[in-house]
Amino acid sequence: MFYYDNKLQYTVRVDTPDPRFARLLQQAIGGVEGEMRVCLQYLFQAFGARGPAKYRNMLMSTGTEEIGHIEMLATAVALNLEGAPSRLKDQMAADNPVVEALMGGMDPRQYLSAGMAALASDANGVPFNGSHVYASGNLAADMYANVTAEATGRALACRLFEATDDPGMKDMLRFLIARDTMHQQQWLAVIEELGGHKGTLPIPNSFPVEEELRKVSYDYFFTGVDGVDLPTGRWTQGESLDGLGEFRLNAVQPMGEEPKLAPPMPQAYAEKQQMEGAADHK
Amino acid sequence: MFYYDNKLQYTVRVDTPDPRFARLLQQAIGGVEGEMRVCLQYLFQAFGARGPAKYRNMLMSTGTEEIGHIEMLATAVALNLEGAPSRLKDQMAADNPVVEALMGGMDPRQYLSAGMAALASDANGVPFNGSHVYASGNLAADMYANVTAEATGRALACRLFEATDDPGMKDMLRFLIARDTMHQQQWLAVIEELGGHKGTLPIPNSFPVEEELRKVSYDYFFTGVDGVDLPTGRWTQGESLDGLGEFRLNAVQPMGEEPKLAPPMPQAYAEKQQMEGAADHK
Amino acid sequence: MFYYDNKLQYTVRVDTPDPRFARLLQQAIGGVEGEMRVCLQYLFQAFGARGPAKYRNMLMSTGTEEIGHIEMLATAVALNLEGAPSRLKDQMAADNPVVEALMGGMDPRQYLSAGMAALASDANGVPFNGSHVYASGNLAADMYANVTAEATGRALACRLFEATDDPGMKDMLRFLIARDTMHQQQWLAVIEELGGHKGTLPIPNSFPVEEELRKVSYDYFFTGVDGVDLPTGRWTQGESLDGLGEFRLNAVQPMGEEPKLAPPMPQAYAEKQQMEGAADHK
Amino acid sequence: MFYYDNKLQYTVRVDTPDPRFARLLQQAIGGVEGEMRVCLQYLFQAFGARGPAKYRNMLMSTGTEEIGHIEMLATAVALNLEGAPSRLKDQMAADNPVVEALMGGMDPRQYLSAGMAALASDANGVPFNGSHVYASGNLAADMYANVTAEATGRALACRLFEATDDPGMKDMLRFLIARDTMHQQQWLAVIEELGGHKGTLPIPNSFPVEEELRKVSYDYFFTGVDGVDLPTGRWTQGESLDGLGEFRLNAVQPMGEEPKLAPPMPQAYAEKQQMEGAADHK
Amino acid sequence: MFYYDNKLQYTVRVDTPDPRFARLLQQAIGGVEGEMRVCLQYLFQAFGARGPAKYRNMLMSTGTEEIGHIEMLATAVALNLEGAPSRLKDQMAADNPVVEALMGGMDPRQYLSAGMAALASDANGVPFNGSHVYASGNLAADMYANVTAEATGRALACRLFEATDDPGMKDMLRFLIARDTMHQQQWLAVIEELGGHKGTLPIPNSFPVEEELRKVSYDYFFTGVDGVDLPTGRWTQGESLDGLGEFRLNAVQPMGEEPKLAPPMPQAYAEKQQMEGAADHK
Amino acid sequence: MFYYDNKLQYTVRVDTPDPRFARLLQQAIGGVEGEMRVCLQYLFQAFGARGPAKYRNMLMSTGTEEIGHIEMLATAVALNLEGAPSRLKDQMAADNPVVEALMGGMDPRQYLSAGMAALASDANGVPFNGSHVYASGNLAADMYANVTAEATGRALACRLFEATDDPGMKDMLRFLIARDTMHQQQWLAVIEELGGHKGTLPIPNSFPVEEELRKVSYDYFFTGVDGVDLPTGRWTQGESLDGLGEFRLNAVQPMGEEPKLAPPMPQAYAEKQQMEGAADHK
To answer: Per the annotation, how and in what number is the cofactor bound (chains A, B, C, D, E, F) (predicted)?
Structure first.
């Protein structure tokens, strides 16, 4: 279960409120690279964790930290919306400052739906979608999902850093960027602890590899037509990363036949011509 | 641009049609771990690729291969739906075999909406959602997104393998599992080519690390209350994976203050008591 | 504005309640082929209609009829859910008839969320999505959208007819299928009134065709590789349907060059190797 | 910011795992009446709270409690999925117990996507959608949103109670139902504290009522045609609840005119007949 | 069933078209606080109404009125889009007035997808989502859902009133705000008719309260850590609103144990280390 | 299976990058009228095609062409985003050009999430949704769905043509508009090949028309109240388009009764008053 503190994990200060930046911050709250996603992803991975208890515990700890990041960003949104109409009025010689603020790049729903506060949505107002909460039941797959979340999350935070000149906002982002630096490596450290590539690949490593069609397990199939350069690299030669094979480069060839489906069954109510014509036409 | 062949990349054969398995296969078509996602993800990464041309080319080649995997799975769905009513009729002593088939675990929309064919949806009928197409503009972040897709994809394929006894379906899955083995390692090979952890971390590596708040960049913050075990591991000690710091374990402490928002502005139409009471109440 | 009657447009009778059929009926309520979609589509087309007033009026009339079809189907769902537990209990020798009913193919949310009534969702429980409300501002495009809705809607109703043996339900579906017969032809009658193919094509017919690249306006581009049959038909020869050209068959050829994107701009925070390597690598 | 404990808020025990009940529990996790929604709704209301600080604090406290309810339910799902194949095997004389379990009413994605654990989705597998997180900036509106969430939430929990015979699950639900009893009344107590109906209505009470069209502010407009009973009740007579008017019953009459839109502008690319015909046709 | 009139329920007049206001109006059409939602919510509650017939009738009447509100708002959108390019051209010294209009804050899809008319979406272009149609089968829960819809709806309308200076639009909003005043109180009047708090709480009142864990039914659990103020108020003392208990304030304590999940079953394809390590690691 | 070429199907050139136009182009990529939809729609129709093989082949060919249209548009987006900050800086005398570009009408996620590249979303950032992939199993229904897609798609392309002055972009759009001209007629040519209206209507033509309620199959039901003009036209008189009846105009009349639902069953947990009052109240 959970507890809260009335203080923020790190200072959130806005020197010059900017309702337009409040819109951009939404991406870090409810976007696919945002804090709602990482928070829920780590917590759901923890709640369903099977195997060594320490990984559940580690996931709980970081998932709990991330709730506080949502809080920080929602606070930052609310502060950026304060004084919105008046500031934008100056810039735009507007008749109606509320209209102008709304139209000058802010998310209209931060006003219309939330009365000047944050939403559970991304920078385009698209609501947070729970399908991004990856918790596969496979620890290595989940760790890579987490690295991805923190890598795209840090790229997002760096871009937000670029998109503001406000010293308070930059200070908050320096903290969040640093936490993403840590969290990327935290998940990769688990991979290292599990034995690195040879200890984890192919994921899941509990499926017996002899069951798969081994003759295509290390082939880079090239699907380009004549005239396209061959994309060679580490993936076309040398030992495979799982240590169980050798990478190769092969032009793709159909190994299957032309698909043949049965005529429509009567209950499917295709057009009559589809049923009659199945034999005659070609 | 693109071309097609009238043959499948690998044989798709169904020995005993099973409309219930047709539902499960939908997860590998339109699910978050499915082929529509990887196909579109690699193609969008290719279409927006900036930097060394060979990575664009490699992504195009594999993205194009994946279109053919959607084709294979959609064919497998259609074949599993053939003979659906009659087979299930036998098992269930049903009055109305269509009803029984529909109710016996198949996706009703494969009949109602598609006339016994595949949908662009997952195993619960949730439509494919384009927000899962990750193409961040950062090559390392994208490679980890791709590893994640192939790791969860291979776990899915292994679970589907478990969920069928049909020799034809098992044969098709052996092929797809093997391709996922290759593709996981293909994306990790790019990370290796870029210099591994020290060459790529923290992602993005083009943001100057001195801009981030370095004092929290390698701290594992523990958010558990008294009585919870400390989750120690590789992530709490030793050199950080980027080679730029040292992991540490610290109990989390608030570094910020209690957030203070301004009273509601009049245009936000809060309740009067919120505006009046801002000063008096506590 | 609108008025209601306390009677249904057509009798809704359920002789033997079947909670499983209640699930299938959801597709005709909130599915992409369902009545919520056609109702809202016709009303939004009416609300935004510009041009001859009679089409607005016609759309209002049929859109209003369709609200009553949602009412009929929602009533049918509620009636099919009556007596659900007891009936299924008999069939299944169940310990807990509610559980068994829920698990025996019904939509669990019809019980859990609605207390035995209809939802604004499809047969898989996916909520109705307003993006299916097509109202393009172009009358011909909208008429074809409406034909599509009624064609897929009638296919759905026929399949539902197949999926029930209940005389009351079959009677209701006979009515709905007949209305779809009418509505398909109603929209096509507008196309006829506008002059048929030559009066409406290409849609929109108000864009000057000389602005388009006429040399590819009637070419069927074949994208198959060697060995694939040429798909010939009415679309590869004869006068085009708009009367302005001649259909032709051509193998596709790239008319463009290889795309070349600029290197990443610094603010995009790609990996350093993408920026450095843009020149050297290939 | 937030902290966690390694213990659950209340005991979660499953005596006889039932993968089908695991599906139903998903509604209480990721459904519109579920714990993810209330948790995030209360926290977002707290994060954006303006006005008396005690309401922010109260919302933080209850929002934090709700995270623990997600944890309890996710744990309950995981436990219900243990032993799934073997138990269902017995019941069904199945060839392949995994297939049978998957088909026997469980959510296939709990296996395929999560390896036998909970998802951030509802009982039909529809992902949690952030648009249900209501935080309007108006305290009274939010309190009613919260009452709604707890009223539908308690109805859901009561229905789940009905749908299981497992003593452990019933025990957990007794706890959750009791908490919903408290939370419903907690939000209504705020309304009482704000002065009840006269203190809060109409919501928002900060908009000057003289600005609205007072002559229709207390009219129940009846839209039924001849022959429909008049729906009389407290809402058609007596003092209005805000104490500012008197309820009345009136048959609806159009107070507006027929809408007249301008012809399509050329850039909208309607059909030519829409532009030409705007004058002539009727 | 339903009928229509060619007149609007109330006058819709736009004195100075403003394509940017047309975007904001979308929130009142397809947003979560909008008219599509209330219209469909009341109609679905009516269609599934069980119990006293007069409530069904009342819901039908108001649901039908709301269809006309969608019509009014869609008309307002269409009128605000007339003359869009030319007006904005003046303001912006633009090269291409269509581009400028599109970029100056309007919803681009009102032009691109609808040819200058309304969409079934919110102010950010997010499509209407049927999951917001609450019809729980419990009359009291539904009434509170309806109060919520009208409270957030009136807050939205007041904010829109603030966001326009157009006399015609203000006149229309005065009407809609007044109707929301009525509808809020209409639903609360039903609660009064059912006996108020003591007659309806806890919702559902048909579940025997002795089945719930009474010892936590009136406890306000405080989850704050040391140093956080206690949030006291009406909800921490005095008789509970249902008249069946007494509110209390208690610091939360775990009443449960640490959750223990079984190791992964083999068919779940976790990593091998999760299966092996379950015993050894901690 | 599929192959790719490193060249585009047609030249994509941007003379003056415009990040705002990059946003509009998204509608043609991931919007409901866009290329992802047509591409996947034709491919899914092909993958599930039953009946004459030539239609499968034709669909494969055109579906494959459309992948290349996504590629062209994604390339156009990437090129329009190049130089974004600097160009907009000039126009706006901005302090921070990145902020200004982001706020000046571009899609912020093209920067924040994609690092200046295309997304799988529409012009409002709403992700592509697979439910728009229509593949009904009925050839005629599918052809009309395809005509609709190409008609709304061509309207979109014409509107985009209006929204840019860039010669390169206009050139690309001339090509795409011409291809839509072809594809509209290609699908209608199939209808002609199947025998036109009399050969295909009512769709599906395999359902025996005598099963439907023939007495309402050709009635235009007028739902207007007194005072509304009758909407007469081709659909109210003359032979029906299927050649099997005669159109008629009739004022709608209820043919059904008032719906009567049973009282709530106890397990549905309605309010007690709903259960008790079912008899007494009216």
So the answer is: Binds 2 manganese ions per subunit.
